[in-house]
UniProtKB/TrEMBL annotation:
The keyword Coiled coil appears for this protein: yes
BBS7 beta-propeller domain sequence ranges: 19-317
Top-level taxon of the source organism: Eukaryota
Underlying gene: Bbs7
Entry-linked PANTHER family: BARDET-BIEDL SYNDROME 7 PROTEIN
Domain BBS7 platform residues, every copy: 492-594
Gene Ontology terms describing biological process: intracellular protein localization; non-motile cilium assembly
Residue ranges annotated for the BBS7 helical hairpin domain, each copy included: 597-710
Keyword Coiled coil among record annotations: yes
Protein name: BBS7 protein
Recorded GO CC terms: axoneme; BBSome; ciliary basal body; membrane; neuron projection
Record keywords: Coiled coil
Coiled-coil regions listed in the entry: 333-367
All copies of domain BBS7 GAE, residue ranges: 375-484
Length: 713
């Protein structure tokens, strides 16, 4: 299947889930494509002989955030609904507008689902249900809502909306009330009904997460039953879109998945249980929408994908390469040749037009009345913490080719290697003065690069701002600056629960502060905390340190805050930062703490395996050059001990791993040093003079000696 690209029409920049295939009508078996873009244009077209044939196109306006199909239940879903700001508009399949519904939402619509006369809308935190455009139900979520769907009412017999929320939870509603929550392994970004209809029961939902996991859960009337879950072993991008379609023609619908790194995946159900990845296909941009259907040629199914910058790409089951020298092959070849020829002519005309417009701009810019306009361009960015390697991934995607990206940081950061990154990086020296730059790096991109992925690792306790200056290949030269906060506890990630049996240190705060004030301090300190102050009087969040595996429990209300962690350095950072934030607002804090001596030994035991592995890796890497020299001089390595021979055999992998994790050992040394200083800081003792001796013990790789040093100091 998916033997070749079918067509490549382009619209404006598209958001997630804004392209659908209309049902085939009458005798025509091929389907029309409808897509909404961020120029506010709804475009509907069909494909004839590989060329796009327009059906209708609306006038530009505000950007379209979602596009769904609707209609009466159990009839073809061929009415087109688009979300624009806080408004929902409806169009017929011919392009006639029949609905303009201005909702009572104060924010723009982020997610939409339609079932018969029922309309389900979500802004950032707010869910609204309308029936025949009349307000029915309302719900305020504790974290951002990324997607919504409703179980099919013809099967489930009641309206059951499901919200995909950023805090790794599905929230199942009944009316305006929360029925129950479903904990997921990652933040869900997209929901779809299993098999397109919720399965036999109508209760099965497929979800995709921002960290690339895929799963199916059954939403019953009282609880969720997890069916299967697929991890992201290949370290691919986050999932943006899902569809079900029988592309393999075996009578069972496959799962079509589109990711933000441009991967299209086809999963099929060989057994009745877990899906198996059968095919994948890589595009150079994130896949905003994916659909299976018959678009280009009757009898041949396709997978249609809409990418971020507005390219629509079709993958067809029609054989492209024919065996033998038949007349049919010759005919196909002539068709392809004429198509290539017409595309070349079109390209030449466009190049001439571009040159003419550039000349015109140059002449007008040199006149005395010249007004230079800055060209607007769209940047799709994503800055997320990866649990696998405790690093931040920064993805920058531009609607046109990127010329260069300058990365600047006022806090120490390690830039890590990214395999997919073909850009040439150069570093600039930074001043050693306080409040100056710690990182200045420029990525120069190859021609036609529209997506750049960087990886950085931060140091907990050191916080500030990372800035990316994005310059695309457009004239006149223009640049956009994007800022990302590096938080004091930047390597912590939200989790559903923690191990309460670990030895814990406790920090207690009391003072004349409001619930909103202490919440704003926690937002400043920790990632993945919703900016909006939670409803109620008290809230508890759980976190895990992605680098070490230590934990943090944070519970606070008006006038009180309680923080528990098995890592004393986490408590120390919180104490320092929260004190500083309270002082800025002239609020007096009463701070008390309870230090558990056993927690230090526990944290050292968590660090030790990583430390031992990195020390061994560093030793092996330092031996490689000497061993290779021996190999050249001696001509054979048979006389070497097996452990040295294995170093030579694995040299490339060892060097690659060492290169991918620069300063890893240094960071572990830093964490142990901070742990040592923090342990005694809570006792009121300054032990900085003993740090050189600590580093000597660390170099000797003696765990017992290290624990003894901590106990005796």
């Amino acid at each position: 299947p998916a033997e070749g690209c079918l067509f490549h029409p382009q619209v404006g920049v598209t958001a997630q889930k804004t392209m659908r295939l209309l049902p085939a009508s009458g005798k025509k078996a091929t389907q029309k494509v409808v897509v909404g873009d961020q120029d506010g244009v709804v475009t509907c077209f069909g494909i004839k002989k590989g060329e796009a044939v327009p059906v209708f196109r609306t006038l530009p306006g505000r950007k379209i955030s979602r596009l769904e199909l609707g209609g009466a239940l159990n009839t073809p879903q061929e009415k087109i609904f688009v979300a624009i700001g806080s408004e929902v508009r409806g169009f017929t399949k011919r392009g006639k507008q029949f609905l303009s519904f201005e909702t009572n939402l104060t924010e723009s619509i982020k997610a939409m689902y339609i079932s018969g006369a029922d309309l389900f809308l979500c802004a950032s935190y707010i869910y609204n249900h309308y029936c025949d455009c009349k307000d029915q139900h309302y719900f305020l979520s504790v974290d951002k809502i990324n997607d919504i769907l409703c179980l099919p009412v013809d099967k489930v017999k009641c309206i059951t909306p499901v919200l995909a929320c950023q805090d790794r939870v599905l929230r199942v509603l009944q009316g305006s009330d929360l029925l129950y929550e479903v904990e997921l392994p990652g933040p869900p970004t997209v929901l779809a009904l299993s098999n397109g209809n919720g399965g036999d029961s109508g209760e099965e939902i497929v979800y995709g997460t921002s960290d690339g996991k895929l799963g199916l859960t059954q939403i019953t009337g009282s609880k969720a039953i997890p069916r299967w879950e697929i991890g992201n072993e290949k370290k691919r991008g986050g999932i943006l879109c899902i569809d079900s379609f029988d592309i393999l023609g075996d009578g069972v619908k496959e799962l079509l998945v589109g990711r933000d790194d441009g991967m299209i995946e086809i999963y099929n159900f060989e057994s009745a249980d877990d899906p198996v990845l059968r095919h994948d296909y890589a595009l150079s941009e994130s896949i905003a929408s994916i659909q299976g259907g018959c678009v280009g040629k009757d009898g041949y199914d396709e997978i249609l994908a809409a990418t971020y910058s507005g390219w629509l790409t079709g993958l067809t089951t029609e054989p492209v390469h024919r065996e033998g020298g038949s007349g049919e092959e010759l005919k196909l070849s002539q068709e392809m040749q004429s198509k290539i020829s017409s595309l070349r002519n079109e390209l030449e005309q466009l190049q001439i037009k571009v040159l003419q417009e550039q000349d015109k701009y140059q002449q007008s810019s040199q006149s005395s009345t010249a007004l230079s306009s800055v060209p607007a361009f769209s940047v799709n960015d994503k800055f997320t913490l990866s649990k696998d390697d405790a690093s931040y991934s920064l993805i920058l995607e531009v609607q046109t080719a990127i010329d260069n990206v300058l990365v600047q940081s006022d806090v120490p950061l390690d830039l890590l290697d990214v395999d997919k990154n073909s850009a040439v990086v150069s570093f600039s020296s930074c001043d050693s003065k306080p409040n100056s730059n710690f990182l200045l790096a420029t990525y120069r991109c190859q021609a036609n690069t529209t997506r750049l992925e960087l990886k950085v690792r931060s140091i907990e306790g050191q916080y500030g701002t990372l800035q990316a200056y994005v310059t695309p290949r457009i004239q006149p030269k223009t640049c956009q600056v994007h800022q990302y906060q590096i938080k004091p506890l930047s390597l912590h990630q939200r989790t559903h629960s923690i191990d309460q049996d670990r030895p814990m240190n406790t920090l207690m705060l009391k003072g004349q502060f409001s619930f909103a004030e202490i919440h704003s301090w926690i937002v400043f300190c920790l990632p993945e905390v919703p900016e909006k102050t939670p409803a109620g009087e008290c809230i508890t969040f759980y976190f895990q340190n992605t680098f070490l595996g230590t934990q943090l429990e944070s519970t606070y209300r008006k006038g009180e805050g309680y923080f528990k962690s098995d890592n004393i350095s986490t408590i120390s950072i919180l104490k320092d930062v929260l004190s500083k934030e309270a002082t800025k607002r002239k609020i007096n804090l009463n701070i008390s703490y309870d230090v558990n001596e056993e927690s230090v030994r526990h944290t050292l035991q968590l660090i030790h395996p990583k430390l031992e592995y990195q020390q061994l890796l560093a030793k092996k890497v330092h031996l490689i050059d000497a061993l290779r020299e021996l190999q050249v001089h001696e001509g054979s390595v048979d006389f070497l001990l097996p452990k040295y021979r294995s170093i030579l055999e694995e040299a490339d992998q060892l060097l690659e791993e060492y290169k991918r994790q620069p300063a890893h050992l240094e960071r572990l040394y830093g964490m142990i040093t901070d742990l040592f200083i923090d342990k005694f800081k809570f006792k009121g003792t300054n032990v900085k003079t003993k740090v050189p001796l600590l580093l000597e013990i660390l170099d000797s790789c003696d765990q017992d000696g290290l624990i003894a040093f901590f106990d005796a100091a």
